[in-house]
Amino acid sequence: MIPNQSIAVEFRRVTKSFGAKRVLNDVSFQIGQGQALCLLGRSGTGKSVTLKLIMALMRPDSGEVWVDQDNVVGMGEHGLSLVRRKLGYLFQDAALFDSLTLYENLALPLARLTKKSKDEIDDVTRRVLTSVGLGADGAKYPSALSGGMRKRAGLARALVLEPKILLADEPSSGLDRITASEIDELLMHCKTERGTALIIVTHDVHGARRVADRVAVLDKGNLVAFGSVEEVSQSENDVARRLITE
Q1: Are 137 and 59 in contact (CB under 8 A)?
Q2: Which of 55, 66, 96, 197 suits 3 as a labelling partner, its CA being 20 to 30 A distant?
Q3: Structural domains of the chain sorted by starting position, each given as residue range(s) with its CATH number in brackets
Q4: pTM of the model
Q5: Shortest CA distance to 16 belongs to which of 54, 61, 52?
Q6: What digits encode the pLDDT tens for the residues 44-80?
Q7: How far apart are the first and last CA of the chain?
Q8: Could you give the C-alpha distances from 160 to 49, 68, 86, 241, in angstroms and in order?
Q9: Phi (first) and psi of residue 4, to 5 degrees
């Protein structure tokens, strides 16, 4: 068990259905601050739904979703806005504004959501861009970035508000192995240097084995395995064992 004060995200008997299809069935797990959890499973097994429940973009049919000591289920909009300030989200497509430069993409949430001065915003934006290897690319528009650079830019935007918890949806999707490894390194840096909790949906087993402190395997709505990479690789569940050792 993780001490309450260090739990980043916890699911307590969470169930979610869409019509007759049960996507999550009585799922419980917890991940601590400064740890990385990789969610594995075949398509349609509830991985992305898990991220949406953490962000309270949807609500479970039953159960509790705790984010940094707050149960977001049933919480009002004001409370949710405060909780979401603690979350960063790395989308598959980076979700950048095409009409803004990379610098402007990062500066925008700082201007809208903080009371930082222009000089402070400039300092934070340049520092975060440098931390992901894009310090010289702030004047570029998203259309001028390669796939790997867009992922780095998306990560920079997710980190610019210094979230306690980073949610990442297929961060290595569409990337070659070398570039995917570079993204893995950046994620591990977030964990070790910033103490950020990571919850990563991925099909990249190689990356999961490098980054994860814990692995959760979902199959047909059920959490069929949860533990370290080594523990899951020795699971009695055939799907979990095959997914992590393939």
Answers
A1: no
A2: 55
A3: 4-86+164-245 (3.40.50.300), 98-162 (no CATH)
A4: 0.90
A5: 61
A6: 888 999 999 999 999 999 999 999 999 999 899 999 9
A7: 29
A8: 24, 19, 11, 37
A9: -50, -40
